[in-house]
Amino acid sequence: MNTLSEAVLLGPHHLAYLLRLADGALILGQRIAEWCGHGPVVEEDIAFTNIALDLLGQARLLYTHAGQLEGAGRDEDAFAYWRDEKQFFNPTLVEIPNGDFGQSALRAYAYTSYQQCLWPALERSQDLGLAAIARKSRPETAYHCEHLAQWILRLGDGTAESHSRMQQALETVWRYTPELFVDDAVEQAAAQSGLGPAPSSLIVQWQQGTSALLRQATLSLPAATPCAAAGRQGQHSPHLGALLAEMQSLARAHPGAQW
Amino acid sequence: MSNAKEWPLWEVFIRSRAGLDHKHCGSLHAPDGALALQTARDVYTRRQEGVSIWVMRADQIVASDPAHKAAYFDPMQDKIYRHPTFYQLPDDVNHL
Questions:
Q1: Interchain contact, B39 vs A44, CB within 8 Å
Q2: CA distance B34 to chain A (A)
Q3: Do A46 and B42 touch (CB under 8 A)?
Q4: Complex ipTM > 0.85
Q5: Averaged over B79-84, what is the pLDDT?
Q6: Is some CB atom of chain B closer than 8 A to the CB atom of A47?
Q7: Which of A47, A147, A154 sits opposite B31 (nearest CB)?
Q8: Stretch 143-162 of chain A: residues touching chain B, C-beta under 8 Å
């Protein structure tokens, strides 16, 4: 892709904006990957792991693109393995622990359905490399949402036990979703420079899609809570540190190791 | 192993990009058709094996009994007149 090497950063917010997207995909992918070998059935083990790998693929493209724009020699591994907790800019939603399978599916759906609103807008980004990544990721994300929605429907509208656990999971997960739609300084700058949409412009579409599904799954939407999470500013829950310690241990024990 | 709560078995048929017919490629467990289809997509088409999927509940398939092989299939062995190899074809249709 020639456009990438010729591209330049649109401003100081540009790198932070790309890392938010990349970190969101990476950390959610890592959380889902924890299910590898532990899925409820072998078929879903493969399906869920496929989603984790797709998210990892999105993160790799975004990191590589960010590294090229930055021009300081950082590659995808430098971003994934050699930054510390406070240098990660994923929303807190994707770093909270998995909980049971239903909660994991619900959290993954909360984020991938946000990505589903985001990609079409990013296809029009002034950053042509980012637009290309959005175009590639869009059909993957559409499938992730479709698959996860099937589980939310079946577990929400399933047995009394599955319903109550899903309702509990919804209370846990949904309070982290407002962060996705906050127009902070980075997001405002991104919107002004034509990099991406203002997050607040996506919330109506996201709410319509998700609340229709949750209603169909006979789940009650929790009361709206103010946003208390600030993962995208690098202020994380204690859970991210533990996740990174595991994820980064191999690369840090054997720097530069190759397969 | 088997009990009433266990998910039913589904047989999976995939049509490849260049293929005309769906070919049986395996089976999987799923609670219903929609999830069987999605799971088949994830288990059997990860490497671009196909462009179309059919799934079918295994217990809906009516199958011949292997014990009936003698009565069902063996009598065909000596009925070579059923093969169209005794006709003299006109030259014009030699490439049939």
A1: yes
A2: 8
A3: yes
A4: no
A5: 78
A6: yes
A7: A154
A8: 143, 146-147, 150, 154
pLDDT of the residue at B81: 76
Task: List average pLDDT for each run of 10 residues in chain A, which is 259 residues long.
Answer: 60 95 98 95 93 98 96 95 97 98 98 98 97 97 96 96 98 96 96 96 97 98 86 96 96 88
- Rounded CA gap, B11 and B60, in Å? 10
Q: Mind telling me how many Å the CA of A153 is from chain B's nearest CA?
A: 11
> Cβ A43–B34 below 8 Å, yes or no?
no
Query: What pLDDT was estimated at residue A5?
Result: 42
For B21-63, what is each residue's pLDDT tens digit? 999 999 999 999 999 999 999 999 988 889 999 999 999 999 9
Task: Please indicate if any CB of chain B lies within 8 Å of the CB of A44.
Answer: yes
Contacts of B46 in chain A (CB under 8 A): 46, 50
Q: Note the pTM of the prediction, 2 decimals.
A: 0.87
